[in-house]
Specification:
428 residues, alpha/beta, Aspartate Aminotransferase, domain 1, Aspartate Aminotransferase, domain 2, seven-stranded mixed sheet, 14 helices, 39% helix
């Protein structure tokens, strides 16, 4: 095998012809060591404090953790550290212990699980029997699609969907269309209209890399026109988009129109787990046919209690969304004033697009050296020419922390040139 580490990506090591698992592991470890030596392996760094706007991080080669401005957490409203959420989790442990002990079907379905199923269904203005819980947001997508779509069916994905959606399509036929390209989506729908039993379009509400939104109203019209179903994963929209934080579906006033709503409890809802919302009969099918639900232990008392309290907080303390949007607008404009390319973001996810993977890795290192923890994103998470620094803004970021980050970007630009040429700095 002849791979240039300087031009390689993780994808080059997914399956190497002629290499057994040990040989593949050895060459991949050599590649990781190559990245580490350049200071571009800022993954799996050990955090020694809770997630938040400032994180204590044990940096490579250092013996004690350093305080960094954290722009890597999707805890958008800061609820993981909210006193009410923490207290609810501790109280649940006192009452129920630490685990559920079984899968939902055979003894692991407790009253608190039932309460959350009902609460998340009500949150989306649906029937109380219209939801199912999974132990991760990832499996809420992968398991549901695998259960509902088989070899006679087809899943139609926006190319920007999450990896969990892509995994869900392994048991069915799949077509993709370029990100938010309605003409190409319509072309695919026309071509498959009479060829498959079930046709399901699967999109995100807010996309995790660009932070932009799906044109949900137009996509819904197309799916109905061609007899397809629509599933929306709005993991990054809940608690951020919409008047009351119900996401892109609320923004378009379509909460009751799509076939499936999927999401996670690991972001705004400050815990872990996932959910699917749909018609009660369809949800009941999933509860007895979806293998990852049926054969996985149910969520823990503390996890579920934290989510229940976070759902209440979202409605009872709307000031957190207000603070989040104050921070989003301020930070976004600051980056534009520096001439940075932030793409088409409309959410708390803000990328700084650089393009060159090597320069992106170097930018991540320079930011880290200035006390700013971000995520350099390269292929295959994005296209080879679309590498970027990806950041998540939180309601609990202070203005001083955002200013420190903007100043750090200015210094990185001075050192390696990451801004767009002749950028006016005006909002777009």
């Amino acid at each position: 095998m002849n791979i240039s580490f300087d031009k390689a990506s993780f994808k080059d090591f997914e399956n190497i012809e002629g290499y057994n698992m040990y040989a593949r592991a050895e060459i991949f470890n050599n590649y990781l060591n190559f990245l580490d030596q350049r200071g571009h392996l800022n993954y799996r760094m050990v955090c020694t404090s809770g997630c938040g706007p400032e994180i204590q991080v044990l940096l490579p080669g250092q013996s004690s953790p350093q305080p960094l401005v954290g722009l890597v957490s999707n805890d958008y409203l800061g609820f993981t550290q909210h006193p009410r959420v923490r207290q609810a989790a501790m109280a649940a442990i006192e009452q129920y212990g630490t685990g559920s002990g079984a899968s939902p079907a055979i003894g692991g379905h407790f009253r608190f699980h039932q309460q959350l199923e009902e609460a998340i269904a009500r949150f989306f203005k649906r029937d109380q029997e219209a939801s199912i819980l999974y132990t991760t947001g990832y499996t809420s997508n992968s398991a549901t699609i695998q259960c509902l779509l088989k070899k006679e069916d087809i899943a139609i994905y926006d190319m920007g969907v999450h990896a969990s959606v892509q995994e869900g399509g392994l048991l069915t036929n799949v077509k993709t269309f370029p990100h938010n390209d309605l003409d190409r989506l319509e072309q695919v729908l026309k071509n498959v209209q009479h060829a498959y039993r079930n046709k399901m379009v699967v999109i995100d509400g807010v996309y995790s890399q660009d932070g932009d939104m799906a044109p949900l109203d137009q996509i819904l019209k197309l799916t109905k026109r061609y007899g397809a179903y629509l599933a929306v994963d709005d993991a990054h929209g809940i608690g951020v988009i919409g008047k009351t934080g119900r996401g892109v579906l609320e923004l378009y006033d379509l909460l009751d129109e799509v076939d499936l709503i999927t999401g996670t409890f690991s972001k705004t809802f400050a815990s872990i787990g996932g959910y699917v919302i749909g018609k009660p009969a369809l949800i009941r099918l999933l509860k007895f046919q979806s293998r990852q639900h049926l054969f996985s232990a149910a969520g823990t008392p503390a996890d579920i209690a934290a989510v229940l309290e976070s759902i209440r907080l979202l409605d009872e303390e709307p000031q957190w969304m207000d603070r989040l949007w104050d921070n989003i607008r301020y930070f976004r404009q600051g980056l534009l004033d520096l001439g940075m390319d932030i793409g088409t973001t409309e959410s708390a996810i803000i990328p700084v697009k650089i393009g060159d993977p090597k320069k992106t890795g170097e930018a991540g290192l320079l930011l880290l050296e200035q006390g700013i923890y971000t995520n350099p994103i390269i292929y295959p998470a994005v296209s080879r020419k679309d590498a970027r620094i990806r950041m998540s803004v939180m309601a609990t970021h202070t203005r001083e922390q955002l200013d420190r980050t903007l100043q750090a970007f200015a210094r990185v630009d001075e050192q390696i040139g990451i801004a767009l040429p002749n950028r006016s700095g005006s909002e777009h």
